[in-house]
Structure formats: structure tokens, C-alpha cells
Design brief:
- The chain has about 650 residues and is an alpha+beta fold.
- The chain folds into 4 domains: about 90 residues, Immunoglobulin-like (Sandwich), CATH 2.60.40.10; about 90 residues, Carboxypeptidase-like, regulatory domain (Immunoglobulin-like); about 280 residues, Metallo-dependent phosphatases (Purple Acid Phosphatase, chain A, domain 2); about 130 residues, Immunoglobulin-like.
- Helices cover about 20% and strands about 30% of the residues.
- The chain has 12 helices and 42 strands.
- Strand 29, helix 8 and strand 30 form a beta-alpha-beta unit.
- The longest helix is centred in the middle third of the chain and has 21 residues.
Length: about 650
């Protein structure tokens, strides 16, 4: 019956109310038209090559002089929506005045007319210095490297496989297969590049068809950076958990800004260089905290930060495809391997991991495993990169995430951490002075193989123990697995001369060791895990090891986190020099700051975060329990670090 009534009503309308129904339809169409801006013959190219100061031309019919054209960034580039009025109106196109805020990247273009707002299309804006460069056969990328309106000669350009240099006019051509999706320059000495969203713009994304020619230009800013400082920052691990963002801003960023201000006052150029694991892949999706969120935490710093990819900076949803898993990193932070010149120093950034992540898929985090290896294509690229350096006394600094060598023991013995460490050392063998800086371990150690020109500085972590020890209701300190304070490396470069030190977050630069009065180090469940139940309290003796038993041997343990074999140690008691030995032990402060804190909440310590044995510990024995010791540590640059150790010295979470 309901169906019949519907048909009957429709028949009545068609038979007797044709005019009124038609009027109703016309009204609806007119209302729809009123909500649509009628622009026809739109032709928006996939890539807009926009020359400096040239108007932006949009082809189409139906524009009005008061229309506003909005460019909305869609690929994470710095800046928000840019709205431009029509500068010139023609029958088949409009011209818009260029805007400095329109950087290169993907944009959505919309037209705004009164209360109406409508999509016109999408494009990639590509500001260029010279749009008139002719194509050359087999050359898929071309462009100009320039500064102050003039081309710069002899700048190295690469895509991670192919190399070329700019001619006398700053022009280059590159036969790129576009595998890595970007092209980049080796920033020359005494130049810098602009910084966008916290990232130096030494690279450009390649967005066109594989064999089509693209224009990619690079603007350099002249400076004098022969005298410069680099802060090396390992394992930041931001994930919006454990109170990490608060600790990061109030602790690390505050400390880093103070270090920057100290050197700025001296007229020195300052740079940052991460050593991988800026993010934490396990929380990319559950906490919605990825690499872009990390960049939001550092984008307001007043100095450039170059980056290294770490194993936790790959997309955990992508399985068995290293290139695709690194795509989010490359899109935001640039190539995973490249080089830069700062002053007289050549910096090489490498990616020494092959990400596997078996079992990963959209919505599922995989195993996140990887191989510690520098693949052959990078070794080949490195050889080509180094071939441009004719002066073999040029200091080479290699920055990568995974260590070259393993944590040495008390005898200084170590092994290869990266699978093909000898291959990298061999590639660097022609240079007199090579320093390899790494992270990943969350501890400090330094290795210089006998007779080798290559030494490694493995750096303690900015996040220390993944932000655990300083998190709410834990130890209230910030300490790495080897007892080092959470911190970063500071390298001072004057020409070819290099000096360095490890900067503990929240401490003065002269804080380079901690001394324990082992008579006062006694780790027990009642003292350090009082809230644990009986089951977990029973685990404390095994975790505490030798420190579970009270000692009266008058021994003193010294943790020197930046120690190298050419450092000197002096321990005096009443003017008499005490002998000491290098030992391989666990740092007691980290035991109570992390391991025992986990036991205190009836949780087993996470194996990756537990206290490790370290070889930068030194043991001496005093004559009695109350004598005062004068401890002096001298580094390779003659800088002396001292402590007058009044004993007994208390053992506490806040001890120095």
C-alpha cells in the first residue's frame, strides 16, 4: 500500500503539478549553483616552477578580481596557509604576486569568494633561480647553486648514487634515476643554507616522472664558520611518555640553549647534529608522536640541526622494505646519507642499518629488527664523496647511529659492532684524522685502535635511560646505563684543530666524573625498593650484585665517562699518591635509579634499559674510612677536573 501511495503522489505531480515541480527543481539547482564557484578550463601543473619575483600564473576562466587564492601546505613544510589576492585578471588566467612564505612542497590550491571556499587543484611549488635552463640528454635533474644572486662554482651535487659539480655559473646537470627521491648538495665551507621547520635545506625532493627533467636550485648564505662548535646529540627518543617532553624542554633544551649562548658570546658559529633515534617507532601510532612531532620540539632553536637516521626512526608499519620504511624520514629530514663542510672539517652522515621489520603492515607494528651494516651502495657513495677532498689532512667526522665497535672492557678489548666495520675503516684509510661519532648504546666510550687514524666516540644519550630515571616518582635524576649523566657531546673546531667534551644535562662543563665511597654503597630492598612485594624484594640481591653486601674495605670507585687512554688520573691521600686499577663493573647509582625503581613498583627492569658493565670505572683503596682524597683527572687537552672527596661520602640519588 505504501508503494502504491508513492506512485500515486508522483503521478499527480507529473499530471497536474508539472509547473510547480519544475519550479522546485529549478530552485534546488539554483541553490546548488550558489554554493559553487564556477571556474572552468583550469590547468594546474603537477609541478609549478616559480622563478624568483615572477608572478604565479593560474590558467582558468571565471575568476573575479576580489577572489582570494589560498595555498595550503600538505607535506609538512614550514609555515601555514598563504592567501594571495589576484594581482592581474585576464579572460583565461590570473596572476598572483609571489610570496616569500611559499616554500617548496606540496600544496592544495583553493579559491575563496565571499563565504565560499572551493578546491582548484593540487600541485608541488618549486621556487627556482633560473627557469630557462635547457634540457640535456639523459640529465633528469638540473639547477643552479647560488648566493646573493650569483652562481657558485664547484659545489658538489648528488642523489646518493651519482655525483656532479656546478660549473662557473653555478649550474649543474645530474643523470639521476631518482631512487632515493631527493637531490642534495655538500654545503661548501663558509656557507650555510636556510632552515625550515628546524631542518637545514641542503636537499630538495624529486617529485616528477623518473626520466623527466626537474629543476632543483639551492641557495647558499655566506658566513664564516672556520671557528665553529657542534653539539652531537644521540638517542633523543621522544614519544610523549614518561614525562619526556617536559624533561626535554626544561632539561635538555634549556641546557643546550645555555651552551649555544656561551659560544655565541664568543662569536663562534654553532650547529647541532643528532646521532639517530630522534623518535621512538613503537609509539609513532599509539601516541601519535612521529618525526614531525619531534621537529615541533626543536624548530624554534636559533641554530641549524643536521640529522642522522636511527633504527627507531623508520616506519614500523612497513615490512621488509628499508627504502619505503625510511620514506617518512627522507620526506621531512632529508637523505639518510650525505655530507657537509663546516669550516675546515668535512662531515659525513651515514645510515648503517638495513631495516627489516618482519610482520609489519598497516595497523600492525612488526618485529622492528634490522641489520647493523653499511651497505655497498653507501660505501661506493662514500668513496666518491671523499675523492673530492685533495687535502688528506682534512679532519673527517663520520656521524652514524650504530657503533663501529663494542663497549670495551677494563683491558680496553673490544670487537666489531657493525658487521662490516673494517670496510668503513678501509674507506677512510687515506685520511690522517678521522673521528667516528655514534649513538645507539645509551652509554659513553671512546676507542682508538693502535696505529689507526680512525677513532670512535660513542655518545651517551640525551634521553639517558629512555627518560625513565627522571620521570615522575622515579629517582629524580637523569642518568645513562653506564652511570654517565644524560647529555651530549660538544666539539670545538678552530680550523683543523678539534677539542671535545661530554656535557651532562644540568651540570657545568667541568663535571666529568663521579666518585663513590664504597663503604657507603649498600643496596638493599628495604632502602631502595621499599614498596615492592616479597616476590620482587627477593630479586634485589641478584640485581645489586656486589653492592648487596655492605663493605668496609675503604675502597673508592671513580666513574670517568669521557675517559680515553691518553687521559691521566691522580688520586692523593694526605699528599701520598694512591694506586688505582681500571675495572669492569656496574655503576651503583644507575642500579638504584632504574633497576631498583622498577622493582619498587613490582615490575622487572626492561632488559634493554638495565645497568651495564662499563670499563671507564677506576678503583682505589684509602688507608681508612674518613680520609679526604684529592682526585684529579686530566684529559688529552690538558684540562683538569677535580674533586676534593670528603669521606665518608653519602650515597644518594642526587649525588655528584
Amino acid at each position: 500500500m505504501r508503494s502504491f501511495n508513492s506512485i500515486a503522489i508522483l503521478s499527480v505531480c507529473l499530471t497536474f503539478g508539472t509547473i510547480s515541480c519544475k519550479d522546485k527543481n529549478i530552485t534546488q539547482i539554483e541553490e546548488q549553483i550558489a554554493t559553487v564557484i564556477k571556474i572552468t578550463h583550469i590547468d594546474i601543473p603537477y609541478v609549478y616552477n616559480i622563478a624568483n619575483k615572477d608572478d604565479i600564473k593560474i590558467i582558468g576562466r571565471g575568476f573575479m578580481v576580489d577572489d582570494i587564492i589560498a595555498f595550503i601546505p600538505k607535506s609538512g613544510q614550514d609555515g601555514g596557509t598563504v592567501e594571495l589576492p589576484i594581482n592581474s585578471l585576464a579572460e583565461d588566467h590570473i596572476l598572483l604576486s609571489p610570496a616569500e612564505k611559499l616554500g617548496d612542497g606540496n600544496y592544495e590550491i583553493r579559491i575563496k569568494r565571499g563565504s565560499l571556499n572551493q578546491l582548484l587543484g593540487k600541485t608541488y611549488l618549486n621556487p627556482v633561480f633560473n627557469t630557462d635552463l635547457p634540457d640535456k640528454e639523459n640529465m633528469t635533474v638540473k639547477g643552479t647553486v647560488y648566493s646573493n644572486g650569483q652562481g657558485i662554482a664547484n659545489v658538489i651535487v648528488s642523489d646518493g648514487f651519482e655525483f656532479t659539480t656546478t660549473d662557473q655559473n653555478g649550474v649543474y646537470y645530474l643523470p639521476s634515476a631518482k631512487k632515493n627521491g631527493n637531490v642534495f648538495i655538500t654545503v661548501p665551507a663558509n656557507y650555510e643554507v636556510a632552515v625550515a621547520n628546524g631542518v637545514p635545506q641542503f636537499f630538495k625532493k624529486l617529485v616528477g616522472i623518473q626520466y623527466a627533467s626537474e629543476i632543483k636550485d639551492f641557495e647558499l648564505i655566506q658566513t664564516n664558520n672556520d671557528n665553529h662548535v657542534v653539539a652531537f646529540m644521540a638517542d633523543i627518543h621522544l614519544a610523549n611518555r614518561n614525562g619526556d617532553l617536559g624533561q626535554f624542554q626544561s632539561g635538555f633544551i634549556k641546557d643546550l640553549n645555555e651552551t649555544y649562548a656561551f659560544y655565541k658570546q664568543q662569536g663562534k658559529k654553532f650547529y647541532g647534529l643528532t646521532l639517530g633515534d630522534q623518535s621512538w617507532d613503537a609509539y609513532w601510532y599509539s601516541n601519535n608522536f612521529k618525526l614531525a612531532e619531534y621537529l615541533n620540539q626543536v624548530k624554534d632553536l636559533e641554530f641549524p640541526i643536521y640529522n642522522v637516521i636511527g633504527n627507531h626512526d623508520f616506519d614500523p608499519y612497513v615490512a621488509l622494505n628499508d627504502l619505503l620504511a625510511a620514506a617518512p624520514y627522507r620526506n621531512l629530514m632529508g637523505p639518510t646519507y650525505y655530507s657537509i663542510n663546516i669550516g675546515k672539517v668535512h662531515y659525513v652522515i651515514l645510515n648503517n642499518m638495513v631495516y627489516k621489520n618482519d610482520g609489519g603492515s598497516i595497523g600492525t607494528i612488526g618485529s622492528r629488527e634490522y641489520d647493523n651494516i653499511l651497505v655497498q651502495e653507501q660505501l661506493d657513495w662514500l668513496q666518491k664523496d671523499l675523492s673530492y677532498i685533495t687535502d688528506k689532512s682534512t679532519p673527517i667526522v663520520v656521524a652514524m647511529h650504530v657503533p663501529l665497535y663494542t663497549n670495551p672492557n677494563a683491558s680496553g678489548n673490544y670487537g666489531n659492532y657493525m658487521q662490516n666495520s673494517p670496510a668503513l675503516v678501509n674507506a677512510l684509510s687515506n685520511f690522517d684524522n678521522v673521528k667516528v661519532l655514534t649513538g645507539h648504546s645509551h652509554i659513553n666510550y671512546r676507542i682508538t685502535p693502535k696505529g689507526s687514524n680512525v677513532s670512535e666516540h660513542n655518545m651517551g644519550a640525551v634521553s639517558a635511560t629512555w627518560w625513565w630515571t627522571g620521570s615522575p616518582n622515579y629517582a629524580g635524576n637523569h642518568i645513562c646505563k653506564d652511570g654517565s649523566p644524560g647529555g651530549y657531546g660538544v666539539w670545538e673546531m678552530e680550523g683543523k684543530n678539534q677539542k671535545w667534551y661530554y656535557k651532562g644535562i644540568g651540570y657545568e662543563k667541568d663535571y666529568q666524573f663521579r666518585a663513590y665511597d664504597l663503604n657507603k654503597v649498600h643496596i638493599t630492598a628495604d632502602t631502595h625498593s621499599p614498596k615492592a612485594n616479597a616476590e620482587f624484594k627477593a630479586k634485589v640481591p641478584d640485581i645489586a650484585g656486589e653492592y648487596a653486601t655492605a663493605s668496609n674495605k675503604n675502597q673508592v670507585l671513580i666513574n670517568i665517562w669521557g675517559y680515553q687512554d691518553n687521559w691521566q688520573i691522580s688520586i692523593k691521600e694526605n699528599g701520598q699518591t694512591l694506586p688505582y686499577s681500571r675495572v669492569f663493573k656496574k655503576d651503583p647509582l644507575h642500579l638504584i635509579s632504574y633497576d631498583l625503581q622498577r622493582i619498587n613498583v613490582n615490575a622487572d627492569p626492561t632488559s634493554s634499559f638495565t645497568t651495564i658493565y662499563t670499563g671507564h670505572l677506576f678503583l682505589t683503596t684509602a688507608s681508612n674510612a674518613t680520609s679526604t682524597l684529592e682526585i684529579t683527572v686530566t684529559d688529552e687537552f690538558g684540562r683538569k677536573y677535580t674533586e676534593t672527596m670528603t669521606r665518608p661520602k653519602a650515597f644518594s640519588y642526587s649525588m655528584r
